[in-house]
């Protein structure tokens, strides 16, 4: 539940870069920082709440779904926090009201769910909230009523700044001793995850730097700049998840309750927001750099862009140094070296072109890693041993940070699959997008299989993961051009296929290294590689057919046949020939990985909903459609995570040997693919619906968008039913009736306006899930208190 909420915050933080990009000057940067601080306060409120009570039980679930819808509206309104677009509702007021509602929900839930001696301080927390609310509302409304000679923008900025200061100082003045951290692992893991999510937002900014519309050519400068940008993000990820994140948790564990609360507030609630601000600035700087690599757009790269990029890295490293000093009393090593080098070389970088400036920054940050392995080697190894307990726990009990880092790149590739559908909104375009999605799924599931066996955080393993991330990012950049060639650009089909071949070859090498020779003789390994080789050869011929100069826009019958044959050979070969390699050593890790990919697909749908209304005036129709989309996504979340995910995990744990391998292959590696297909189709359908709702005079409604909206829900629910049958050998007749109802509603609602069709689909799906949930009450009681996900270890009540 908390991760679902975090995915909505992903979009909200992502929209801050759009706010600054529209007003790219010092004032705009200050506005962006204020919005980040406000969003952080909202996020941290729910982190405190989640540390005290379970958010996935009883009435808390629908309440959190309502909060998620509110945060989505906040993110949609974030780009117009300080301006307004004509033709719609007043943007600043929409942002302030949505933000205050999110904060109000958190305070109400904290006040009425926490009892005992902590309720008094919580009641006093209403004072800074009330003061900040008045200032924010004045900041939104007052500038419209000021005399003509008064600068309303400066007044508005001053009021927002004062409200932020009042909120932060007021909460700090309440004292850290007045609240307690119930679960240190949960508290630390929540903040590690938000840093990871912010890093993922930076990766999405890299991929979407040149926009989500049109067909800009892919050049070597684009690929090189993206690779260097990924090095920057990867090193920053490494700096935090190598030592600092785990050492801070162990330090928090050692202190008594009173000191622990103060340390948790300072090291996490305060210093982590500094790192988040740094990452938002880095995302903006990399976005500016990669959108300026072509001669026609080089004018966008200026001195301020360079300073934003280097300043973001500097802010992030300062926050990291402060975190290490506050928790483990460490001051020195490579982060300080990085601060010195970034500060020294920034004047040089302002004279370089964008790729050169990013390359210089990547070299500086890489030197930090090399310094830890050479100059500071002894000290670095000592710190590793001090943080070993928390790091080993994270590496052996759940999904590791490096796996989540890879998953965040998958978010971007899913977005690009939807972009491919949007650029080619025909049946052929949808088929092309699903073909690419199938390849991405095969590669991801195979690396999940290796990660389930290879539980290592060694440097070679991390470097291998970063190479996989780089190849996946490159595929994502080329996905919108996976079946055609844009003039003056590199052939998109060849980029996709060559990178995919590299991914599969790396997997075969990894499989050979992790599987014991006595369990998989050389001849069996060769047989396992035959279908893979055949599929890759077919894909290569298909790419050659699609990469011909002046090729028609429509995929040629030959290339289509080759793609289809390659996918069938790859999936069938993986099912029949490679079945002996589907061994699962950790059922918990395996099921968590697939649960997370479902969450990621839901998050991609959330981002698509926000992207559809970007740049449009905010109207009541947009707000209602966005909230309705969130309810629909929450309902589909409920369909999987209410009982199915828990039952699947329990059944997988109970099976052993070949039975567990067969279940892992069927129920997860293969039956989760149509779930992802359904959510991807739904993402496209929501995007097309919101596109029409947000601009009624713009694009006309198409029957394809309506059909795919309903088809996405149908495919997802059918796959969910098949998953249940494979794990429980039962048919849930309520859901089967619901699937039939959605199928009937698809043609019936076709003549209706898009918003009405979306509302009817959401109401029908929610009603079916409520009835099914009532019927599953006995099963839920038998499952009683399901163990929380290993990625969020919890001791909460």
Automatic annotation (TrEMBL):
Highest taxon, organism lineage = Bacteria
Q: Where are the transmembrane segments?
A: 29-50, 62-82, 88-110, 122-142, 154-173, 193-212, 218-238, 267-286, 306-323, 330-350, 356-376, 404-422, 428-447, 459-483, 495-514, 526-546, 558-582, 594-614, 620-640, 667-686, 706-725, 732-749
**Pfam families cross-referenced by the UniProt entry:** LtrA
Ribonucleoprotein found in the keyword field: no
* Keywords associated with the record: Membrane, Transmembrane, Transmembrane helix
Q: What is the protein name given in its UniProt record?
A: Low temperature requirement protein A
